Xyloglucan endotransglucosylase/hydrolase (Dendrobium catenatum), 296 residues
Amino acid sequence: MASTSCLHVVLVLVLCFFLSTAMAAAPRKAINVPFQKNYVPTWAGDHIKYFNGGNEIQLYLDKYSGTGFQSRGSYLFGHFNMQIKMVPGDSAGTVTAFYLSSQNTEHDEIDFEFLGNRTGQPYILQTNVFTGGKGDREQRIYLWFDPTKDYHYYSVLWNLYQTVFFVDDVPIRVFKNSKDIGVRYPFNQPMKLYSSLWNADDWATRGGLEKTNWANAPFIAAYRGFHIDGCEASTNETFCATQGRRWWDQNEFRNLDAKQYDRLRWVRERYTIYNYCTDRSRYPTMPAECQRDRDV
């Protein structure tokens, strides 16, 4: 009886191991895809340089122009990832952006914006979420590393239940679907993926006090690991509206797990420098989604 019981316990443990391994095997990491296959320049294509067969690119900003690129397709939900190495040295006034955006006036948008700074001062990562054309949901953090020294992963998980911003698989922000309390959520407008490098010295660094020093131009941001794992609505929008078919809308991705919540709290407590939810001068009454967010 004892040996049978032990065998049963062992079988259960083995089964649990394989199940947990299968759950952890979701393809959250980047898949290298040549730039030209899925992306096209948005403007100033002569300010983009290609390396390693198009698996790596560099965006250039000078006093004449910045540049950017966009995905060929539009997507409704998915996992979107890019490895980026930010502009090194004195990057004050520059903005490196990585975002999703729909195409109409009441657009939805999910933003990473990296705000440059004077040499020796830390980069600021600003995130924002637009729904139905309304934004003003800025959050700002310092990063826990120097983003100019090496490539790091920046990604968005977007499904019908939540939108999560990740840095190197660490969740830094969650925007939950709060339609039930009257907050619009991006759920029915396909979005393209964009990235750009541009001059914004009227606001980007210390509210515009620090201007871009063009003597340091060209400013260069480097990219690799171009990855989209989403439902291409431009080819099959009806299918995209059907949930439960992709890894990123399975049950385990409808909320953060306990470890991810711990990491999110760590970011909030140590690295957050601005959160619109706590800005009573802008919002005397806390926005509805922020009241729910306090429970995260």
